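Continuing the batch. This is chain 6 of the set; chains 1 through 5 are on the previous pages. Same settings as before, nothing changed between runs. Recording input and output for traceability.
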Amino acid sequence: MSPPSLLQATAPATHTAPTALSYELFPPKNAVAEATLWATIRELESTNPDYVSVTYGANGSNRDTAVELLNRLLTETSLLPLAHLTCVGNTADELAGIISELLDHGVRGILALRGDLPQDAAAQPRTGSLPHAQDLIELIRRVEQRRSALLCAGKVAIGVAAYPAQHPESPSVEHDVEVLLAKQRSGADFAITQVFFHADQYKDLVTRARRAGVSIPIIPGVMPFTSLRRVRRLGELTGVAPSDSLLDALGRADDAADSRRIGVAATVGLARAALDAGAPGIHLYTFNEHAAALEVLDKLQLLRPGRPAVASRSSAGKPPRLVTA
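Output for chain 6:
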């Protein structure tokens, strides 16, 4: 009898993937913010994350600074960038040019987003603009297909947004899952959730998604809840109500240090609950600040793969930060 081929063989069940780790950064608006960001980047780099995402302003308002940051991450650090890209207000031709530019710089991961709609209700979409993230995903795949020979050393990974709580413009949570399934069918490889405040919101999203046929990884996006003002503001922007107990605890904090202690503990509890529910990784929204993110990471004690030390391309850098149980 012939031995099984490699295609037929299956990996032992014990060979599970390590927990993924990633961070979100945004391009700086001035020289002071740039200095702060790069201090954060060097600290986060020491934890050896799998990738860092770089945000992209509505209608590409910060396109130049975003591309510059992506290029510097690729040339001056050991970090792998995931480029956010929004489609609202941009035509297919414009977006195809941006996608090609990102690929030319060496970007191999794109987070495909619709983006925020114009605040002016009277504003009309530009003729030929792409209305949905699903359209952007399909465009990325078409650009990728045309450049297949150039991408033999690494195809493009496409991420999308997922919503543990109902999207503000959605008629139902079931509709949100149908949209996620459509994104998967168009070529999405993974999803990162918007911020959520209750562990059950992530668990319920995954349950609904799997029942509907969504099979891509759904990575929980977690923000260190260290600022009462920021938590309230985020709740307003996303339409997701923060936990009353969290708001009460932060409101009774004696000072910034106490607020940070309370917020880190709440964030760690939320992240642990998501991991216990089977989350494949954690994506930390840093707001370009490293201290709270690293404290959350230290308390989570994630089991991370052992990797050789990789010096940044611009300097010897620091030795990798150990993040193991």
